[in-house]
């Protein structure tokens, strides 16, 4: 459900109506999806999910390919890591190469970390 766009004068009644509309649209309806695929039908956020294993040596650059798009459908550069988990407590962080519209370079604080990461 998308909110209807309308120009409202900032009266208390209109502000209440706008808040109720936003609550209906957002209430429980924002999701990264139910699995790590980027084609999950219940995913409705602009984010890219990836899984893999970091290099054996800690703090070594590795690259992930992504197809993140903005609301206009055009490719865009991710701005951050939204969520991550690893099997060995390692933390993922930005690598030494600038992120692009097709790739991100990351590092892990531990070697051979099996990871899931969400980029937005």
Helical proportion? 10-25%
Instruction: Count helical runs.
Output: 1
| Relative strand content | 25-35%
Over all CA atoms, what is the radius of gyration? 19 Å
Unreliable segments of 5+ consecutive residues: none
Number of strands: 6
Brief write-up:
The protein has 120 residues and is of the alpha+beta class.
Characterization of the model:
With 120 residues, the protein is an alpha+beta fold. The longest helix has 15 residues, at 12-26. A hairpin with an 8-residue loop joins strand 4 (92-94) and strand 5. The model has no long low-confidence stretch (mean pLDDT 90). The chain has 2 domains: 1-30; 36-119. The chain has one helix at 12-26; strands at residues 48-53, 62-65, 81-86, 92-94, 103-108, 114-119.
Summary keywords:
120 residues; 2 domains; three-stranded antiparallel beta sheet; 26% strand; elongated
Could you outline the blueprint of secondary structure elements for this entry?
Blueprint: H1 12-26, E1 48-53, E2 62-65, E3 81-86, E4 92-94, E5 103-108, E6 114-119
Antiparallel strand pairs: 1-6, 2-5, 3-6, 4-5
